[in-house]
Amino acid sequence: MQRAFILKASEGRTTPDFSLKSLAGSPGRMDLLSRCIIATFSTQKGTRKDTTLEIILEGMPNPPISMTIDSNARGDLPAGAVPVAALIQDSLSGKDVPGIRLKRKPFTESVRRYANEGFTLYYLHEEGKDSKGVKYAGKPAFILGDHKGLDPASERFLDTTGAERVSLGPHSYLASHCITMVNCELDMVNR
């Protein structure tokens, strides 16, 4: 099943000036982004295919930048946070990294693109419909925020797109864990 994830990274650095030796201590929560990439694509048998992750980097100094990672164009991805962060750093440095492309576009434009390409939008939110009762469309796109969540203006925008709010549980979970739970649910349906 083709699937996409759209992550709004409110602090995600838009330049490669973060330390690989201290991802959690560097500005921009690049550790969070690395974990989300791993959760999106890593399986026991290698890199998950037919999957896209678009991260909208809204941190300093040049927001917004959309980083799209396409597993079909990428091939294998490393499974560790530091090697994944090194790919992000290379991409932000202007190096050609297979399967990763950067564009200057905001969150709203990214979401609209998926809707225009026939994806059904699902916003992962604690107060949404229980995910266990959702029958996901053939091309689902899951929208989520980083550790800060989505701002009210972004939530209002999603309401105008018809994105269905879906809950993975009564608590706020790490973004990477949400991605893992969604992948698990979709894999169970499609096995």
Explain what this protein looks like in three dimensions.
The protein is an alpha/beta fold and 191 residues long. 33% of the residues lie in helices and 26% in strands. It has 6 helices and 9 strands, in the order βαββββααβαββαβα. It has a 7-stranded mixed beta sheet with strand order 6-5-4-1-8-7-9, sandwiched between helices. α1 packs across α3, α1 runs parallel beside α6 (175-189) and α4 (107-116) runs parallel beside α5 (152-161).
How are the secondary structure elements laid out?
Layout: E1 3-9, H1 30-41, E2 42-43, E3 46-47, E4 51-57, E5 65-70, H2 71-74, H3 81-92, E6 100-103, H4 107-116, E7 120-130, E8 140-145, H5 152-161, E9 164-167, H6 175-189
Parallel strand pairs: 1-4, 1-8, 7-8, 7-9
Antiparallel strand pairs: 2-3, 4-5, 5-6
Helix pairs in contact: 1-3, 1-6, 4-5
Keywords:
single chain; alpha/beta; two-stranded antiparallel sheet; 6 helices; 26% strand
Characterize this entry briefly:
This protein has 191 residues and is of the alpha/beta class. It contains 6 helices and 9 strands. The chain has helices at residues 30-41, 71-74, 81-92, 107-116, 152-161, 175-189, and strands at 3-9, 42-43, 46-47, 51-57, 65-70, 100-103, 120-130, 140-145, 164-167.
Oligomeric state as shown: single chain
Inertia-based shape: globular
Treating each run of at least 4 consecutive H or I residues as one helix, how many helices?
6
Sheet with the most strands: spatial strand order: 6-5-4-1-8-7-9
Whole-number mean pLDDT: 94
The portion of residues assigned to helices is 25-40%
The portion of residues forming beta strands comes to 25-35%
Please count the beta strands (DSSP E, at least 2 residues each): 9
Which class do the helix and strand fractions yield?
alpha/beta
Distance between the termini: 10 Å
Compute the CA-based radius of gyration: 15 Å
Output the helix-strand order. Answer: EHEEEEHHEHEEHEH
